[in-house]
Amino acid sequence: MINEFLGTAIEAVESSGKILIQYFEKLHDSRQKNENIRDLVTEVDLLAEKNIKGILASQFPKHNIVAEESGGLGINSDYCWHVDPIDGTVNYSHGIPLCAISIGLELNGQIIVGAVHNPFTKELFYASQGNGAFLNGHVIRVSEKEKLEECLYVAAFSSESDDNKGKEYQTFGEMNDNTRGVLRIGSAALALSYLACGRIDGFWVKGLHEWDIAGGLGLVSEAGGKVTDKYGEKYSFESKILIASNNSIHKELLKSVAY
After folding, report:
1. Three-state secondary structure readout of the chain
2. Count of other CB atoms within 10 angstroms of residue 95
3. One digit per residue, pLDDT tens: the chain, 259 residues?
4. Contact between 47 and 89 (Cβ < 8 Å)
5. Which of 100, 196, 107, 204 is nearest to 157 (CA)?
6. Backbone phi, then psi, for 246, in 5-degree steps?
7. Does residue 25 come out as left (phi exceeding 0), alpha (psi in the -120 to 50 range) or beta?
8. CB 82 within 8 A of CB 210
C-alpha cells in the first residue's frame, strides 16, 4: 500500500510542477497573508493546491488533508497528508526558480511518504518508510562529514518577534564565520532535500508549520540523517525548533545553534 501512497504523491507534485512553470514570471497578484511581510500567497499557490488536493482526495477519500492555503478537511483519520503547493513563494513571485511543491503523508505521528519537486531544475526527491530516499530514481544519502567547520548549512529565521531574535542572528553569523558557510534559500523543503542528498550537511529553523517540512522529513530519515528538537529529542510538529544534519555532526550542531 505504501507504494500506492508514494505513487500518488509523486503524481501530485509532478502535475502541480507543470502549473508552476506555466505561470512563472507571469504573476502580478501576490498578496500578503498576515503581518509577516514575507508570507505571501499567489494565484498559483491556490491552483496548485487545488490540483494536489483533488488528486489525493480522489485516491484516498477517507484520508485527512492539511494544506497551507485552505487548511484541513477535518476528516478523522490515522492518515494525514501535509501539502505545501509552493514552498518558496517569495522566490517564485520574484521570478527566482528556487522553490518546490512538497507533500508528506503522516500516519500516527510518523511521516511514511515524502515527495519534494522543483520543476525548474527537474529534480524529484522522494522517500517512503523503510525503502530509502531517491533523487530522480537514484539512491541518495546524507554526507559523511565529521567536522563542524568543514560543513555547509542552511538556516531559516523565524517570523516571531521575541527576545531570542538577536540570538538567531548571532548564531547565524557565528556559524557562517566558522564553517564553510550558512545559506538562506527560502524553502525548508528544498533545504531538507539538499541535506538528504549530501549537498548541505545541516539545517536549522524555528517556527515552521508542518506543511513546510513534512515532505522533507521523510527524505532525511530515509537518507540516514537525523532530525531532532533543540534538546536532541525526537522532533514533532509541536516542537518550535528543528535541527537536522547527518549523524556525525549532530551533537556539535545542537550545541552551536542552541537558543
Report:
1. CHHHHHHHHHHHHHHHHHHHHHHCCCCCCCEECCCCCCCEECHHHHHHHHHHHHHHHHHCCCCEEEECCCEECCCCCCEEEEEEEEECHHHHHCCCCCCEEEEEEEECCEEEEEEEEECCCCEEEEEECCCCEEECCEECCCCCCCCHHHCEEEEECCCCCCCCHHHHHHHHHHHHHHCCEEECCCCHHHHHHHHHCCCCCEEEEECCCHHHHHHHHHHHHHCCCEEECCCCCECCCCCCEEEEECCCCHHHHHHHCCC
2. 10
3. 899 999 999 999 999 999 999 989 875 455 444 443 344 457 888 899 999 999 999 999 999 999 987 777 889 999 999 999 999 998 998 899 999 999 999 999 999 999 999 999 999 999 999 999 999 999 999 999 999 999 999 999 877 666 677 888 999 999 999 999 999 999 999 999 999 999 999 999 998 899 999 999 999 999 999 999 999 999 999 998 999 999 999 999 999 998 7
4. no
5. 204
6. -70, 165
7. left
8. yes
Q: Report the alpha-carbon distance of residue 221 to residue 122 in Å, rounded.
A: 23
C-alpha grid cell for residue 105?
Answer: 503523508
Contact 9, 126 (CB under 8 A): yes
Please state whether the predicted TM-score (pTM) of the whole model is above 0.90: yes
Close Cβ partners of 53 (under 8 Å, ≥ 6 residues apart) = 65, 67, 70, 83
Phi then psi dihedrals of residue 167, to 5 deg: -65, -35
Tell me how far apart the alpha carbons of residues 192 and 105 are, in angstroms, rounded to a whole number: 16
C-alpha cell of 21?
Answer: 512553470
Please state, in angstroms and rounded to a whole number, the distance separating the CA atoms of residues 126 and 137. Answer: 9
Whether the CB-CB separation of 111 and 122 falls below 8 Å is answered with: no
